[in-house]
UniProtKB/TrEMBL annotation, chain A:
InterPro entries: F-box_dom
Alphabetical UniProt keywords: Membrane, Transmembrane, Transmembrane helix
Residues in F-box domain copies: 4-45
Composition-biased stretches (Acidic residues): 466-504
Biased composition (Polar residues): 505-517
Species: Caenorhabditis nigoni
Pfam families for this protein: F-box (PF00646)
Classification lineage: Eukaryota, Metazoa, Ecdysozoa, Nematoda, Chromadorea
Protein name: F-box domain-containing protein
Transmembrane in keyword set: yes
Taxonomy, superkingdom: Eukaryota
UniProtKB/TrEMBL annotation, chain B:
Pathway note: Protein modification; protein ubiquitination
Family affiliation: Belongs to the SKP1 family.
Region (Disordered): 1-25, 160-188
Family annotation (Gene3D superfamilies): Potassium Channel Kv1.1, Chain A (3.30.710.10)
Domain SKP1 component POZ residues, every copy: 38-96
Recorded name of the encoding gene: Cnig_chr_III.g8742
Composition-biased stretches (Low complexity): 8-25, 178-188
Lineage: Eukaryota, Metazoa, Ecdysozoa, Nematoda, Chromadorea
Compositionally biased residues, Basic and acidic residues: 165-177
InterPro entries named in the record: SKP1, SKP1-like, SKP1-like_dim_sf, SKP1/BTB/POZ_sf, Skp1_comp_dimer, Skp1_comp_POZ
Protein source organism: Caenorhabditis nigoni
Signal peptide: none
Protein's name according to its UniProt entry: Skp1-related protein
Amino acid sequence: MSGWSSLAPETKQKVVEKLDLMSRIALGSTCRADRDIVNSTKLYIPRVRIAKNEDDCLLMIYSGVNRFLRMEFAERADGVLISRSQNSFDPKHKSFKLIPFDMTFGTSTLAMFIAVNVLSKPNILVGTIEWNNVDEFKILCDLMFNEFRRTNNFIVTSLDNLPKIRVKNVEVLGAPDSHLLFFKLLCNKSVLEKVVRVGIVMNDVWRNPRIVSETSVVRRGDEHLSVLSGILMRDCAGFESILETLERALDAEPSDGDYVFHTIRDLGMAASEHFDLLDVPVQKLNEKVTMKRFTRKNGTYVIRFNKSACGFFIHAVLADHENKFLELFQKQTCGIGPFCKKCADSFDYWHYSNITRRIFHEPKWTETPDTDSETLTKESMESEIIIEKRKLKEMEEQNKSIKYKPWGFRNINPHMEEEPEILDEQEAEAVEEQKRERRFVESMIGTLAGTLRDNNFNPQQNNPEEKEESDSESQDSSEDDSEAQDVSDNDVATDDTDKEDSEVENSSASEITSPSENAKLVDQSLAKDLSYSKIVIFSFIWFIISVPVSIYVYRALSII
Amino acid sequence: MSSTEQGTSSAAPAEPTTAPESAAAPEVPESFYYVHGKDKVVHKVSAGALQHSALIHGMISNLGYTEEQAKANPFPFENIDGDILQMVVDWCNQHKGKPTPPEDTNLPKQKEKLFDLVLAVNYLEIKELLTYCCKQVAMMVKGKSPEEIREIWMIPTDAEDEAAEKEAKKRAGKEAAGETAAAAGDAK
C-alpha cells in the first residue's frame, strides 16, 4: 500500500513546498527523515515583525497579503500568556495558551527565542525583519547564547556561532541602537542588503504615502546599505524647496570612508512637472528611465532628476561620490520602490500602502506617527479612526460566514478559548512582584554591564546632544541624521584597551572595527556580566539568610 | 471512461469504440497510442493527450511507431494500477491542448489512491498533474500537529524506523549466510 514513506524525496519536497510554515514545522517534528526533507525545501517569508510594548511583546510572521501568524506574549503570575491568531486582528479569533516560563528577563526573550529558533534555518529566507521598540538586546543575546549552549551541548562557544537568520532587509521603527547588535549577531551578513530606519510623517492626507525621502549610506567595511527612510503623507514641495532640502542634506559631510546619497521619490507625480520645466538636456539612463543631470555649488553637488513610467524621483550625491553609485542609479527602472503597484512585489506594495492602517488594527503595537500639519488635530484623527473602525466592522459583518480556523497553530489547550484574566488582588500583586524582580535584575546587569563596558566593551551609545539631534531630525526626514544616530560614545578608554578603543573611535555608525574582535569583546563582557550578576544575587541571598540567623544566634547566646 | 475502452490482454488490444475529444477537429488525422497498467487493460490515448507525459512523449519520439505498431505494442506500465492509469489517461484527455487551470478538484480524496496517483504521475513525468496532486497531499496535513500528521500519512517514528532497519539487516544477513551455505554445499 502506497503512503508518504513510498514517495521519492523530490516528490516529498514538492509537497512540502505547498505547506505553510507551521505545518512544515509540524512535519519536521514527525521523524528525522522528514526533518531533513523540510530543512532542504526553500521557504520565503516576506516579513517578520517583532514589537514591544512595556512588558508585552508581539511576534508576527507574514506569509502573504493579509496572511499572517500572530503571537502576543503577556506576563502572568504563573508564566507567559500567549494569544495566537491567524490572518485576523479580531480578539474573537484568538486562542490562548499559558506556558510556564522564567519571567526574569521578560516576554521579549521568549518571542526572540521563538523567532530565532524558527527562522534561523539555511533554507529559510526572510524578506524583512521589522523591529519595533525592542531594547534590552544585550540581555536577549545573553540569554539566547546560554540557551543555545545548553541545547547544543555547549558546542556553541561564541556569539559568532549563534544560528544566523538569512534576512535581506532589517527595518527599524523606534529602536535606537538595539538593531545594530541584532544584525551583527543574528543576521547572515552575506544575505543582508539593507538596514532601514523608517519614520512616518503624517499630514492632512495621512493615509496615503505621497513622498519617500531617503538617505542611503554605504559604510566602510559594510556590504549592505544603511538607509534612513521617511514616508511622508504630503505632496512634494516646490522646485527651490526640493533643492534646498537636498543641499542641506549634502552639507552634512559623511564620515571618512562612508559614501552617501539622497533620494526623493514622488509617489503622487505632483512634482514631475519640475522635470519638464528644467532647462537641461535629457539623457536616457536606461530603457525605462530618462534623466536630467545638473550640478550645484560649483560642481560640488550632483542632482539627478529621473522620470519613469511609474514616477518621478531625484538622486542627490556629492560629485566625488557619484561614480560609486552609478551602477546602482542605472539599475533603477521604476524609481518608486515598494510603492509602485505595477513593479513592486505584491506583498511589499500591500504592506507599505497600508502602513498607517496599523493604528486601527493594532493600536497597542503602533506608535502614533509624527505630524507636520497644524490642521491635523487629535480630534480630526479620532474622527478618521471612527470612520475606519466603522469600515472594519462592516467588513467583518460581511465576512461573518467565514470561519477563522487557526490551522497554523495546534490547539494545545482547547479549554482556553477566552483570555484568562487576572483574578484577584493577590495574583495582580504576584505579577507586579515579578516585574519588580525582573527590573531589579535588569538594572543590576545593566549597571554591571556599563561598568564592564567602560573597561573592555564599547557599545553604541549616543551622546545626549546627538540623541536630541537625531530625534529632531527624524521629524524632518529629509535631513541626514544617520551620522548623529550612529556616532559612538568612546569617553572612557583604559590603558589596556587603548588600541581597540581608538579603532572604535575611528569607525562611524557604531560599527566596531572587525566582527571577530567585536564578537570576542561581546563574549567577554557577557561572560563577566553573568558571573558578576551571579555573585550579586548570591551575596544578596546570603545577606537575607545570614541576618535573621545571626540575630537568632545572638538572642540564644544572650539567654544562655 | 469516455475516451478509453477496457481490453483483456496486451497481446490483443480491444478496438476502442468511443472517439477521442479531438474528433471534433478531424482536419489533421490524429495518431493514437495504447498503454496498459498492471491489470493489462489497454487504454487508447491520442498523441496530443500524451504530450502531458514527458516519459511517454520521449518514448514515442524515440521509437517512431506507426499506428499499427503502436496498436500491436501498447506501452506497458506494470507498476501502475489499472484504475490509477485510467485516472491519468482521463486527466490527459481532459486537458489535451488546453491551458491547465490553477486548481483541480477532480482528484481522489482517498489517501491511498492519492499516493498511488502521485507515484504514477511522478513516474510518467506529468508535471502539471503532479503539482495538483502534491497540493492535494499537502492539504491533507495543513494545520495538523505532528501526531496527527504521523497518523494521517502513516509515518513511522524514528525508533520504529531503526527497528525496521535492524530487522531488514538481520534478514539480509541471514539470507546471505544461507546463500553462502548453499553455494558451499553445491561446491561439495
